Amino acid sequence: MSTPQSRSSEPAVEPSRLERVVDARLWSSTPVVVCLTLFALVILYFVFTVPLEFSEQLTFATCCFICALLFRRLQGRYATLVMIMLSIVASGRYMYWRLTTTTYWEHPLDAIWGLLLVSAEVYSTIVLLLGYFQTAWPLKREPMPLPADRSAWPTVDVFIPTYNEPLSVVKPTIYAALALDYPTDKLSIHVLDDGRRPEFKAFCEGVGVHWTIRTHNRHAKAGNINEALKITSGEYLAIFDCDHIPTRSFLQIGLGWFLRDKLLSMLQTPHHFFSADPFERNLGTFRKVPNEGELFYGLVQDGNDLWNATFFCGSCALLRRSMVEEIGGIAVETVTEDAHTALKLHRLGYTTAYLAIAQAAGLATESLSGHIGQRIRWARGMTQIFRIDNPLTGKGLKIGQRLCYLNAMMHFFYGVPRLVFLTAPLSFLFFGAHVIEAAAGTIAIYALPHMMHASVTNSRMQRLFRHSFWAEVYESVLASYITAPTLLALINPKLGKFNVTAKGGQIEKNYFDWAISRPYLFLLLLNLLGFITGLVHIYLNLGVRSEVQTTILNLAWTGYNMLILGASVAAASERRQIRAVHRVAMKMPVMLKFSTGRTLACQTIDYSEGGVGVELPASIQVPMHERVTVSLFRGDEEYAFPATVGFSAPGRVGLRFDEMSREQEYDFVKSTFARADAWMGWAEGRQQDTPLRGLSHVLLVGVRGIAGLFEHLYGDLRGFTRGRPIDVKKLETKKD
Amino acid sequence: MKVIVVVSAKGGVGKTTLAANLASVLASSGRRVIALDLDPQNALRLHFGVPLDSIDGLSRATLSGDAWQSVMFDGVDGVTVLPYGAVLEDDRRRFEAYVDHEPHWLAHSLSTLRLDASDIVVIDTPPGSSVYTRTALCAATFALNVVLADAASYAAIPQMERMIEAYAAPRPDFGGVGYVINQVDQSRQLTKDVLKVLRHLLGEKLFPGVIHQDEGVSESLACDTTLIHYDPLSQAAADFRACSQWLMSRVDSIAVSPGSVV
User: Fold this and answer.
1) pLDDT digits 0-9 by tens, B183-221
2) In whole angstroms, what is the distance from residue A214 CA to residue B192 CA?
3) B212 near A CB under 8 A
4) Nearest to A700 by CA among A417, A284, A310
């Protein structure tokens, strides 16, 4: 808590009245805290449980929501905390009412559906509350500079584990590791090649890094790193997945905290992806809507950091060797060795840290099936940890850490609840089951505040990292796949298998992945039938008011579910990738020199491993196939690359590099991927999130998904009636 | 008045071209600039569209006792050009003897022009040691040493440093020396290596960028103009702009430093 003295030293920013009240010293004395907490809990109990008439509850809920909307206009974290509190009140009242007055079912069928739905709701509410706890106050840690005297800097081993990835994928990472701004006598780079490939050996020897192998492949990546630990001796390890290209500043930005905090065992930086993941590609949201991972790396990890519960994510991280060795190396018991390693470090009382500055970047997973495979592995791994080393029990953890770990694991159990939500209204529409024993109006005045507060509050907390309602899409796509592995792992942690995600490939043609989207299609069909049944039901019962109301409520829910499923279907509609190499949009100065000796000073539009796109001033056009020397700059340094014009338009030119020497490849990585500012400003130009804007965007994507589905269906059926065998790879779709 | 003297110990480093282009960029940024040629080659004027057959210049004016105003030309961008003038060999020797005898001739003559404090005089000089370089250094607020990224340029740096040490450094109003590396082609390894050495040697005194080799520079002279008119989009034009900005920040910081007398 900041004291008046420390605040007076901060220039210009006048604390608001609210902040001054909250920052007062009075609140930090223990008896005051205890008394206030008890008082607050008692009050909260009354607020949750006091029975209100219909009109009273309506008034109360409206007042609360207006308060929340007013607080939303205020800046600052305290206003956010007030909004969280209001959301907790709304959810608490709803859950109390839901559990105490709506759970008396008349028929066994009602009871089965009802129990499932209630459990799913309890689960979501717990995850909501844990989420508030976890992300209420992101730490926003700043980098700690290393001492000015370079001789005081510690020694570092850089590990780049690889198994079957092609050399072309790993090369940029190795070059970038060589380009790290760090004294060469204190830096040792190791390519841990579990594929034991001769071409890797030759390349590593050629560029001067260690090619490190072992005789077996036990425990995959974790085992690979542990073997390398035995033959290296640097004080710290930096671990990069073989396709995560670090920037030159990675070590200098990350190591400072280790020297300051003697208990610090691990520092994680975000996993940043410069190519579109399948959601972004298939839904056309790349760089417009935050992707699935951004919530975790933007907010959750930063929130974890406050509770000293930052998780290790396997790559783009720094670890202190002595502490890793103390826990017996990287954990090998589960398929998410990274999270388990962090848990073990936390149990010994060591700290971990998170720096939310992208200091490395890589390729996102290529296809939806690959993406799903990766998430299944995470979900299985977290469930395994939950079973074999449960963070709620055991030694060494603080309550905050336990809750953060609990949320991380609970989060992956969303499979069943999500499926329940996607099918719950059908029980009424098909079987007339009354899963919630209450009138539609009463349900609305309790449930709507719960949902609306959660939306408004989460949108405020997550707006930069997750747009409203996108979680529904991401979860719905994964729910059908994640359910079985998590349940199996919960029963027996050994069930299931490790798989490595393929990266750097290319989707050659547009096609619809019928196999992967089978569950969504099935659910979509069910919902559609339910919707029609509901309409018929209304038509037959026009006179009965309560029936009509209940049916409309369920129809609205079903309609919403259909659109979310439509968005899931859209995500499975694989769009062709135009190029094998990914272009990274980046503006940086570039010089073109033509065969005449004349030059042009321009800016790049993007770069890729094969060339650069350049914006030409004043709509200049360059002839095709012209020979050009391209100069890229990095600080004082200039690197010249011979190239040919491969694309030309007024004001734009695409330049393809000639065959590059090793030296030139190294120079290219130095002047592009490894720039310290390479990944800054990635989210620039995004639309601000609001719940309604997020909702309408998601629903629009859903409509497009359903429309696209019929197009695919039509195209594929035509192909089928012409007697050709169905080959998903050959199915053509609308080009955009 | 800020007097920027463009010098180099070695010939053929593109000194005149650099002086003309910097003067042109500075003038187009809105400052009053006088481009003054102290090189008997009398080539500076050609960048500003002064007719080839014109023989007027400050050498003749000085010998005949005429005012400088009578030999000033209005060049492109509003740069005021003071050519050296075309003189016979005997007259040149007389002029040089005069300048040699009166090292402060230039400083005095400039002071008679009654220029504003923010006005800029860019002086081009012949390479190496000469009476012209000496008199120019005696009037200089700032010396700009043009070098190439080659071994000969590197080796000649100490010679020019000695001249600056002797003629300019003792004056309290002298603001120091800056270096510019001209005609750089980084596709050559030797260039890269020498650049590294020069950066290490010259440190803070060196313009952080370079002036790239650019065919447009020589083409612009053939068209009687400066590069920012002939090919404003070229890299070298961008370099000239960056260099003039750097130069101005150096020169303008001289005035505010205490103890300097303008």
Assistant:
1) 999 888 889 899 999 999 998 999 998 999 999 998 998
2) 41
3) yes
4) A284
Would an 8 Å CB–CB cutoff place B183 in contact with chain A? no
Closest CA to A502 of A689, A694, A368: A368
Which of A277, A302, A338, A689 is catalytic? The answer is A338
Q: Residues A671, A673, A676, A682: is their CA dihedral positive or negative?
A: positive
Element (H, E) at A561: helix A545-571
What's the whole-number mean pLDDT along residues A672-695? Answer: 85
Question: pLDDT value at position A20?
Answer: 75
Q: Which of A110, A157, A193, A194 is catalytic?
A: A194
Chain A: closest CA distance from residue B154 (Å): 19
Closest CA to A691 of A61, A69, A74, A70: A69
Instruction: Answer yes or no: A194 catalytic.
Output: yes
pTM: 0.85
Separation between Cα atoms, residue B99 and residue B93, nearest integer Å = 10
ipTM of predicted complex: 0.86
Q: Is A599 on the interface with B (CB under 8 A)?
A: yes
d(CA B179, CA B149): 12
Distance in Å, alpha carbon of B217 to nearest chain A alpha carbon: 9
Q: Could you tell me which residues come within 8 angstroms of residue A487 by beta carbon, excluding any fewer than 6 positions away?
A: A415, A416
Question: Are A600 and B234 in contact (CB < 8 Å)?
Answer: yes
Q: Which amino acid is at A605?
A: I
- Compute the distance between CA of residue A653 and CA of residue A628 in angstroms, rounded to an integer: 11
- For residues A321 and A235, is the Cβ–Cβ distance under 8 A? yes
* Cα gap B68→B84, rounded to integer Å: 11
Strand partners, B142: B4
The residue among B25, B187, B223 with the most chain A CBs within 10 A of its CB, best to mutate, is B187
pLDDT digits (tens, 9 = 90+) for B44-95: 999 998 888 889 999 999 999 888 888 999 987 889 999 999 999 999 999 9
Do A446 and A57 contact (CB within 8 A), yes or no? Answer: yes
* Distance (Å) of CA B108 to CA A570, B40, B102, B105, B259: 81, 20, 10, 5, 21
Pairing of strands B33-37, B120-124: parallel
Per residue in A226-240, pLDDT (tens digit) is 999 999 999 999 999
| HSE (side-chain half, CA atoms, 13 Å) at A199 | 7
Closest residue, chain B, to A619 (C-alpha): B233
Which site among A592, A595, A598 would you substitute to test the B interface, given the most B Cβ atoms closer than 10 Å to its Cβ?
Answer: A598
Contact A88, A64 (CB under 8 A): no
Biggest CA-to-CA distance, chain B: 53
Residue A338 annotated in active site: yes
CB contact under 8 A, A591 and B236: no
d(CA A137, CA A141): 12
Residues on chain B touching A640 (C-beta within 8 angstroms) = 186-187
